[in-house]
Amino acid sequence: MNVLIIGANGQIGQHVVRKLQESKGHTAVAMVRKEEQKAEFEKQGVQAVLADLEGSIDDIANAAKEADAIVFTAGSGGHTGADKTMMIDLDGAIKSIEAAKQAGVKRFIIISAIGVHHRDQWMESAPYYSAAKYYADVWLEKSGLDYTIIRPGRLSNDAGTGKIKAAVDLERGEIPREDVASTVVASLENNHSIGKAFDLIGGETPIHEALNTL
């Protein structure tokens, strides 16, 4: 499966690229917006394409033309304002969904955030972030694509354990970025995850087993 990773240069995105490259039967295609990022991935033996989430849907669709699936891991980051969050986390996600449809890519996985499907749980410190994630998820659910929405809790850089807790509603908790990436790859390999949206934190259940309980 050729998988286009949007946000490949981000922390989760880099884990996803590596795990896809290490897996059997998958090829990662890193979508980045800078030539130096593209060159760095290519030095690692990873196919890379240039496209900007603040550019056109056509450009993103062109990047996805050889893809069998798209993973959207992009985010504006914690050091930007509400304007950039709306342009990347919301509008960028919606452009990517529309680009997938234009390119004929049915499978789409998006990284969201824990609890954003409940408006009364939106982060008081940055409600625009929760709003961006919420409406991007809703757009994906109504897109007609074979979607999976993964809503991880607080992210850490700890080594992955390969064990998670996944459910429609979970208490807030922490999860290594590596385990989020592993859940993305496992979701690509598990059709039971299609049409599912779930919270994700660290747990005691192997990832494939946890996905089968959704």
TrEMBL record:
It comes from the Bacteria. Residues 7-190 form the NAD(P)-binding domain. InterPro entries: NAD(P)-bd_dom, NAD(P)-bd_dom_sf. SUPFAM superfamilies: NAD(P)-binding Rossmann-fold domains (SSF51735). CDD domains: SDR_a5. This is NAD(P)H-binding protein. It comes from Paenibacillus dendrobii.
